[in-house]
Amino acid sequence: MAISRTNESKPHIYAFWGDDRFSIGERLTFWKNEFRKKYGGHTLWAIDASSIDDGVAFERQVAAAFRTATLFPQPRLTILKDCDEFSPATTEMISSLLATLPASHFVVMTFKKWEKKKPLFAALEVLQKKGKAVAQEYRTPTGAALTSWVQKRFLAKGKEIDTQVLRYFLSCVVTDLSDKVGTPDSGMIASEIDKLCSYAALAPISQKNIDAIVSGIEVKSIFELEDAILQQEQKRALRTAHILTTQRKERGKNAILGIIGFLAKDIRGLLLIQSGMQPSSWSPQRLWHAQRKIGSIGADQLRYLYKNLLLCEQKLKSSSFNAEMVFDSLVVRSTQSDRKASNATPWRKAR
Question: What is the CA 4 to chain-centroid distance, rounded?
Answer without folding.
Answer: 25
